[in-house]
UniProtKB/TrEMBL annotation:
Active site: C232 (nucleophile)
UniProtKB keywords: Methyltransferase, RNA-binding, S-adenosyl-L-methionine, Transferase
Annotated EC: 2.1.1.-
Name this protein carries in UniProt: RsmB/NOP family class I SAM-dependent RNA methyltransferase
Organism annotation: Saliphagus infecundisoli
Gene Ontology biological process terms, A to Z: methylation
Family: Belongs to the class I-like SAM-binding methyltransferase superfamily. RsmB/NOP family.
Domain of life: Archaea
PROSITE patterns for this protein: SAM_MT_RSMB_NOP
UniProt keyword Transferase, yes or no: yes
């Protein structure tokens, strides 16, 4: 059975959802505002003859025409004025909404699309600890940070489940981004093979890592600070169930996700399990809603 069939009971207009999942994903770039204004990046792309469209909900995003160079093959990309990033993957940093000068933990950061976006949102000031347990992927992150001129990033190579803050001389973060490894169902438009090898065993095993990383992030964030949890999958076992456990075990609560894209609320019941009713405040972004990939985003506030 197609694993996506599991979601027939919870996805609105399921046939439109399936049809959207089968269409190729529009290619997108984010303007790197550390190095260029939106107008300057647009002018450089136009001079190169690259056709693109602006996305109204996020002025820093352009979708590229189907024909023509890919997001990583333009001069604008080479010079770090733009970064090839799936449109929907720009949502979690926007929801985290960091301020310049803050201390931010990106728990699972490689290859660095969201970490460099955080740096841009913070005017490249403050400290962003970009952590990942995969050294090879961290090399890509370092390369991207250098190309984009993101100097506020400090890179660490730890298992986020038992992360130690001590090397940095501070005890807590103001904000944390928890963009965990997942079963990647929502990337099917970009990688049509992504569901090959899909199994419930994998969903359950990855959800164990997700739970531990999210709980560590809540513990490492100051009272009143914000944690954003995100995945690119539709599976409630990796989304609402993970956040539900953090809500039960840690001192935190859910806040509404505030973005201008259309989305469905998080589910509060799934295959006989019931979740905290506040999970309706999470966002399920489906491919048929905005012609994007799929994502899940939840925003938690730590403490009272
Ligand atoms: C969805 S990807 C992150 C994408 C990244 N946030 C970005 O925007 O470019 C998940 C990452 O989690 C990392 N990872 C998996 N298990 C981890 C763990 N226990 N601790 C830290 N990182 C982990 C993987 O190596 C992978 O790079």
């Amino acid at each position: 059975m197609d694993p996506l069939e599991r979601y027939r009971p919870i996805v609105d207009d399921f046939e439109a959802f399936l049809a959207a999942c089968r269409r190729p994903l529009p290619r997108a770039v984010r303007v790197n505002t550390i190095k260029a204004t939106v107008e300057r990046a647009a002018a450089v792309l136009e001079r190169e003859g690259v056709e693109f469209e602006r996305r109204g909900w996020n002025p820093q995003l352009f979708t590229l025409a189907e024909e023509g160079p890919g997001p990583g093959s333009t001069l604008a990309s080479f010079h770090g004025l733009t970064y090839g990033q799936e449109e929907v993957s720009t949502v979690p940093p926007l929801v985290l909404d960091p301020e310049p000068g803050e201390r931010v933990w990106d728990a699972c950061a490689a290859p660095g699309g969201k970490a460099t976006q955080l740096a841009a949102l913070m005017d490249d000031s403050g400290t962003i600890i970009a952590n990942d347990d995969n050294l090879g992927r961290l090399s890509a992150l370092r390369f991207n940070a250098e190309r984009l001129g993101a100097t506020a990033l400090a890179v660490t190579n730890q298992d986020a489940r038992n992360y130690s803050l001590n090397p940095f001389g501070f005890d807590e973060f103001d904000r944390a981004l928890v963009d965990v490894p997942c079963s990647c169902e929502g990337t099917i438009r970009k990688n049509p093979d992504t569901l090959e090898g899909w199994s419930m065993d994998h969903v359950h095993s990855v959800s164990g890592i997700q739970r531990d990383v999210l709980r560590r992030a809540v513990q490492a964030t100051r009272e009143g600070g914000t944690v954003v949890y995100s995945t690119c999958t539709f599976a409630p076992e990796e989304n609402e169930a993970v956040v539900n456990e953090a809500l039960a075990a840690e001192d935190c609560r859910l806040r509404e996700v505030d973005i201008e894209l259309e989305y469905a609320p998080g589910v509060t019941e799934w295959e006989g399990d019931e979740y905290d009713p506040s999970l309706e405040r999470a966002a399920r972004i489906y491919p048929h809603h905005n012609n994007t990939g799929g994502f899940f985003v939840a925003k938690l506030e730590v403490g009272a």
